[in-house]
Amino acid sequence: MISSISAYVAWFAPYLVGFFKAAVVAIEISFLAIVISWVIGMVTTLAKSSRNRLLRWPAELYIWFVRGTPSLIQIFIIYFGVPHATGLRISPFVAGVAALAISSGAYVAEVFRSGFMAIPRGQTESALAVGMSPALMMRRIILPQVIRIVVPAMTNEAINTLKNTSLLSTITIIEVTMFAQLALAETFRPFDFLIAAALIYLIMNTILSQFAAWYERNYSLEI
Amino acid sequence: MGVVTSNAQEQDTDLLRLTNLRKSFGDAIVLDDINLSVAQSEVLAVIGPSGSGKSTLLRSINLLEVPDDGTIHLAGEEIHYKLSGSAWRTARALTKLRTSVGMVFQNFNLWPHRTVLENITEAPIRVRGISPAIARDHAAELLNLIGLPDKLHEYPRRLSGGQQQRVAIARALAMEPKLMLFDEVTSALDPELVGEVLDIMTRLAESGMTMIVVTHEMGFARHVSNRTAFLLNGRIEEYGASSDVLGEPKSVHTKQFLNRVLHHY
Predict the structure, then answer these.
(1) Distance from CA of B250 to the nearest CA of A (A)
(2) By the 8 A CB rule, do A112 and A153 touch?
(3) H/E element holding B179?
(4) Which one of A78, A196, B44, B110 is most buried, by most CB atoms within 10 A?
(5) Closest by alpha carbon to A74, among A52, A96, A55, A94?
(6) What is the Cα–Cα distance from A56 to A50, expressed in whole angstroms?
(7) What is the DSSP letter of B184?
């Protein structure tokens, strides 16, 4: 029994290095995509709440399109469609980051919007009444509260983005899913490698949600 | 036809003077040609039925509402509402106005992510540019004044409504305003907490602060305010010394209103 376990470990060990590298790729891409999606989301939600139609309409169009189409189609459009239409060469990595950021940004925008809507009007008024400029009020009074409110929903969205890196296996990126497919094609052991891939996603997301839970414990407010 | 008595010779000592203030929301006229002045160290109570324009009047003074027409004089500065694009719309003019007018709200509106100390020092540091050390000392003095010296590092949610409202008063005072506006500041409080807030306001009035108080507390209006304005349908129906307006009202509408609020049972 023990010898069979150690034999199994010895057989699997070489693939661990590959899985590790693939996980690093997934983490790099999702980290960049998540950070960029926050920027896209914030800009979009501010544009959407603007009185100016030239800002509001593009924001609404973007959210409408992204939420109504599958992420996989968005990835294909950016990786295959855009280069074909424009002649631009886009590396799989850049296309992957861009596609996931754009795909997530629409949801992030709606999460931010719900956060802004949760701030009572009195918060704005009391900040303006002491002479704060709108920018100062946003930075010191409104945003810190919005961020605390949206942490749970943003954690969900970050987990989604991390899991969606598996879709990038379709555009030649060797992330966790792609590596599992390569390994099982070589060994014909789908169960082992797909379970291994699942465990790796599980570990990454557990760390991510633990971090979010820690942040919530330390910074959340019962408003 | 309103009953208005005013003293022309007081105009030079007026800290605040509102002239021909008008405001509509769509078809509804909320403020209809309001003329009102408040002398230095005077306490003006504004009373009236709900929807009479009391809050809008108060909020017009620091431009949380922008009137459609009219003029405000505050401590020698003049603001014409109608001239859109004129000086008051610039950030600096607006900041100057708002830093010289303190406002306390019905729902306290303390910032929940900041401690009591930070609520009080935020604007002095960030808006007036006062050094954090001096702002903190000043905040500690203010907390002594409002009787909460040990709540410096508490978050607002840990305080009672009355305590929160006292902190909100301290936050407004920290800007060293020339004029304080109180917008039904005891209406959201449990009855047993009303007294502690009114006590602070009474002491503030006695210290010479100029105040405009929108209130349903007729006892406070009668005993603390020098003058009372009774608003009805966006107009000043009656205005004069508080003892007159509240004691021997001339307008039948004022009488009816006072009867309603003083004798519900």
Answers:
(1) 36
(2) no
(3) strand B179-183
(4) B110
(5) A96
(6) 6
(7) S
Question: What value does the mean pLDDT of chain B take?
Answer: 89
Contact with chain A for residue B98, Cβ under 8 A: yes
Give the model's pLDDT for residue B8.
43
| ipTM higher than threshold 0.85 | yes
Torsion of CA B249, B252, B256, B261, to 10 degrees: -30
Nearest CA in chain B to A132: B127
Inform me whether the C-beta atom of residue B157 falls under 8 Å from chain A C-beta atoms. yes
- Nearest-Cα distance to chain A for B61, in Å, is 10
- Which residues of chain A make contact with B102, given a CB cutoff of 8 A? 129-130
Show the 3-state SS of B53-117. CHHHHHHHHCCCCCCCEEEEEECCEEEECCCCCCHHHCHHHHHHHHHCEEEECCCCCCCCCCCHH
Nearest chain B Cα distance for residue A118, angstroms: 13
Q: To the nearest whole angstrom, how far is the Cα of A132 from the nearest Cα of chain B?
A: 6
Residues A175 and A25 sit within 8 Å (Cβ to Cβ): yes
Q: Is B262 on the interface with A (CB under 8 A)?
A: no
Fill in the amino acid letter for A160: N
A133 at the B interface (CB within 8 A)? yes
pLDDT by position in tens, chain A (length 223): 678 889 998 898 889 999 999 999 999 999 999 999 999 999 999 999 999 999 999 999 999 999 999 999 999 999 999 999 999 999 999 999 999 999 999 999 999 999 999 999 999 999 999 999 999 999 999 999 999 999 999 999 999 999 999 999 999 999 999 999 999 999 999 999 999 999 999 999 999 999 999 988 887 765 4
The Cα–Cα gap between B237 and B113 comes to: 42
In this prediction the pTM is 0.85
Mutate to test the interface with B, among A119, A124, A125, A126 (most CBs of B within 10 A): A126
Query: What integer pLDDT is reported at residue B77 of this predicted model?
Result: 80
pLDDT (tens digit per residue) in B233-257: 999 999 999 999 999 999 999 999 9
| 3-state SS, one letter per residue, for A17-82 | HHHHHHHHHHHHHHHHHHHHHHHHHHHHHHHHCCCCHHHHHHHHHHHHHHHHCCHHHHHHHHHHHH
A33-36: list long-range contacts, CB under 8 Å, 24+ apart.
Answer: A33/A96, A33/A97, A33/A100, A33/A101, A33/A104, A33/A161, A34/A101, A34/A104, A34/A157, A34/A158, A34/A161, A34/A162, A36/A97, A36/A98, A36/A101, A36/A105
**Strand-pair category, B69-74 with B77-80:** antiparallel
